[in-house]
């Protein structure tokens, strides 16, 4: 299961919402999308709902 998520992430370094693409990973029963900020290159995380 290697899904991709495309949508809004919150960049902590820029303090703004960014449109990015990332891989969906499951950690401790929680689905998370992990990507990189297109502006500053920081790692982005977004917790997704159970589906």
From TrEMBL:
Domain DUF5679: 10-47
Pfam families per UniProt: DUF5679
Alphabetical list of InterPro entries matching this protein: DUF5679
UniProt name for this protein: DUF5679 domain-containing protein
Organism: Kineosporia corallincola
């Amino acid at each position: 299961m290697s899904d991709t998520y495309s949508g809004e992430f919150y960049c902590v370094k820029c303090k703004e919402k960014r449109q990015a693409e990332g891989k969906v990973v499951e950690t401790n029963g929680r689905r998370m999308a992990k990507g990189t900020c297109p502006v500053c290159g920081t790692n982005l995380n977004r917790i997704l709902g159970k589906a």
